[in-house]
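User: I'm writing a tutorial on reading structure tokens. Could you give me a worked example: one chain, its sequence, then its tokens, then a sentence or two explaining what the tokens reveal?
Assistant: Sure. Here is the example chain.
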Amino acid sequence: MSTTADVVAPQHSRATPVEIARRLIARLEQVSYDTLISTPARIFIAMTFWLSARTKVDGLLSVNQSALFLFEYEYSLPVISPRLAAYLATYAEHLFPLLLIVGLGSRLSAGALLIMTAVIQFFVYPGAWSTHLLWASALAFIIFRGPGQLSVDHWLRGRLLG
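And here are its predicted structure tokens:
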């Protein structure tokens, strides 16, 4: 047998500003530290290399003469020809930042850019160690801790590993 209390629909009260603030804070506190650090690190390092890449091309992906000149006379890398180095660096500076932005193959991309950073540090601009240390720190974080929750890698990992 039902009583009047059982039949009466529950009353929906509107959330107070304090309750809304509590809920928001609780949601924010669920974001991992890795995501809070890796997402801006991915964007920072991707933009650094992307902007460098764009100075080396005309149009979409045609390596320009000034880039070829720089690799021939200023960047003088050992072992590899300046022309090949110009093309490899230019295309790598386009590809890996795009992958970092979306968070796909993030550790691989960060590793490739860390190797580029080391080459730049040791063979091109050895005096710019403070800048390169900052880049290397961001890249190392991505390599060791991953790209964070706001990434395709995170989504794929959840799908593939359950």
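What the tokens reveal: The chain has a mean pLDDT of 92. Strands lie at 57-58, 62-63.
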